[in-house]
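dumping the sequnces here before i forget
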Amino acid sequence: MGLFDVMPFEHAFDELSHGLANLSMFPYFDMAHYLVSVMALREQPGALAVSRRSPIACWFSSMLYCFGGGVLSAIMMAEPAIAPLSNSTSILMASIIWYLVFYCPSDLAYCTATITPLRLVLSGMKEVTRTWKVLGGITAAHSKYEDSVLVMIAIGWARGAGGGLISNFEQLVRGVWKPETNELLKMSYPTKITLIGAVLFTLQQTHYLPLQKHHLMLIYTIFTVVNKSRMMLTGSSASPFAPIEAVIYKTLFAGSSPFAAIADELQKHGIDIDNGSPKESRKQKKALKKSPDSPVRGQSGSPEAETTTSCKKSD
Amino acid sequence: MGLFDVMPFEHAFDELSHGLANLSMFPYFDMAHYLVSVMALREQPGALAVSRRSPIACWFSSMLYCFGGGVLSAIMMAEPAIAPLSNSTSILMASIIWYLVFYCPSDLAYCTATITPLRLVLSGMKEVTRTWKVLGGITAAHSKYEDSVLVMIAIGWARGAGGGLISNFEQLVRGVWKPETNELLKMSYPTKITLIGAVLFTLQQTHYLPLQKHHLMLIYTIFTVVNKSRMMLTGSSASPFAPIEAVIYKTLFAGSSPFAAIADELQKHGIDIDNGSPKESRKQKKALKKSPDSPVRGQSGSPEAETTTSCKKSD
Amino acid sequence: MGLFDVMPFEHAFDELSHGLANLSMFPYFDMAHYLVSVMALREQPGALAVSRRSPIACWFSSMLYCFGGGVLSAIMMAEPAIAPLSNSTSILMASIIWYLVFYCPSDLAYCTATITPLRLVLSGMKEVTRTWKVLGGITAAHSKYEDSVLVMIAIGWARGAGGGLISNFEQLVRGVWKPETNELLKMSYPTKITLIGAVLFTLQQTHYLPLQKHHLMLIYTIFTVVNKSRMMLTGSSASPFAPIEAVIYKTLFAGSSPFAAIADELQKHGIDIDNGSPKESRKQKKALKKSPDSPVRGQSGSPEAETTTSCKKSD
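..and the predicted 3d for all of it:
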């Protein structure tokens, strides 16, 4: 009852977290997830052309964007990869959204959804579904492999960031093959935040983290939503974990190994040490930079990247 | 009993369809399937060279041609992908046929099988097995996912056209990698007809199609056999569904979207909109066209394509 | 009791084989397997650079080297591919070894392990684990598919040589893609010896081979260890099966088929018959040969290849 009484805040926090935990993802949040995912696909280079050449490949690619996490975690746990297809309502919803985003007359659906405030809300809602997906994966893994922390993290991560992790194969459906890049070699922000979430929720589940589940859900959800909104508004793709990552990297993985010395020596002699990855990728990047006025821009890499491409031009 | 009495026809139709439904695929129809499949593999560019360099890769590739549908549908339903290998009789039959097609002294087996009337009969018999495979997949899916129409279609399609759908990975076994093309991006005729069959049999199974199963089996089988024979005799690869496809495409997927306008604009400025697919493929096609007198021709794409290559030259 | 009495030898052989059969792979032999596997990965071209760019991709790649056989056989039998991850102790051991090999200060761990006598012992111990892995796979397959010889061979082979068989996809994790080569097209020595072991143990299991299991284990283990040591000491990669292979190949796969005649003709006209595999690979080989003084050498192909690279330079 004094000045520093935090009881009301605690109470509000508790109430809010319970409210969030009881929130149903179906149908509105799921729809936001499908819409943002399909829009991210549409903004991949070449995706629009594929949608004209082969609607079936485009549809399959969209489904991998929407249900990739479920498919990947199902394969990892030897459950039917076809299972997401058996949920008719979800598939129907995702298919309608796919159709509207790619083939709506006058491109109304896509152009409406790319209006910044609306896209902000949709992306925020999509971030909320991430919490549920990670948690769902961890719960499923927990019921099968009770004491294996690693399996729980892996399944939670796969369920939450599946679309990104299988992006090489999703691209293959569209006739694109970029072996020199994948989400393990260069993690995008959504993959990273999902991995952190999977670790946190696994620690909570195994009682290493002294937090209640619904409290963690609220904290994690707020963090992802706020962070996503910040990144969209400022247009920056700077990861908020960059400093921590740098510290971990320097401490653990960049010791005074002879490699550093060798690398220095090699660079003096002008020899590139990385003879494993193709040199072309660098050329391609240069080529892309040379034509900044190309109307069909778009970024590769993360399937959850977001830009607006054709819409503003067509207005 | 009058002039327009159709009873006898109906009766004959019913009898015939019952006869077909009770037909056993084992062993003659299965053998025809293996023979036509392995011959299609042999006619792929580079396949003969692989058969000399590595018989094991060639054998594995042949098995994927023969049992690809079973493997794909097994993976999709989380059943052992190794299961087709446990049917020793089928594997033995397919292996003997593989050996005869690739390594028979004087190439007798292949040259005999490419005689047009014989190949016609064999291809017809292979088409008959398609009906059984699609039906088998749908029945298996029905017993697992009772009410999911989409899963039934997917499994039926995978079982019937598996060899084509996994062709990217089958090619990888032989050291060939063509990411710019797959059966979803550009469906071949066998993949299309199998998809239609999967849809029809699923509708029949779920009673949306008011037809008896054995009647549908007869109609579908006759259609596929007649159509295949027509295509082989006329040498045309024109799909009989082209007009329907064009109508569907124009109605659903080619609306007055801004994309059309953008594409036009881009083409005026000489910019190719399809920056997702590699340009090389076009060059390769040109290169191929330049050397029409190359003795080892062969077409890529569909694993069920049929041409005669070395045989006539060696006679 | 006479001069030619072999009883004592037989007895010693029996005793020794029983001793071997009761040997526990955990923890020393398993550790040797992990260490040799991770060192083989480190010696792949570009692997060191990946370890600096992305420790997670490097760790995942290492786990595929260590547990690839388990993952592949699990997928083939529709068991959870994630299962190896649930064995926390093994994963922890492999992860510690991965860390030491790639990031140990002053590169102590790797440089110590590459000392020839130590590496010889470690490689020998790794060969011993091969016997156990093949046998484990065959036993698992036998309990599921009782009478299928082919499935038992396939699972035993996959379990014992999994890392090699999935090398295309392991490389993809590191951003390397070499579709023109795989272990089926050009088998490495470890893959071959594992296949032979899988065949022998399957024949023993199905009683076609009149030998007791522990006797076969001893014979096979001695053969693999001796052979591996010989190859490491002489530095030769000549397969001991080359003569047998040549006889089998000539008898079965190189008959007087018209292909030979065609190939001859083509070569006369300067046309390469193998238009299925890319020509670049040859160029790349030439390019590699041109720079023999490059300090970061390493051979591609088999994931179990062994050379010393950066260590001697840094001493």
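The mean pLDDT of chain B is 82.
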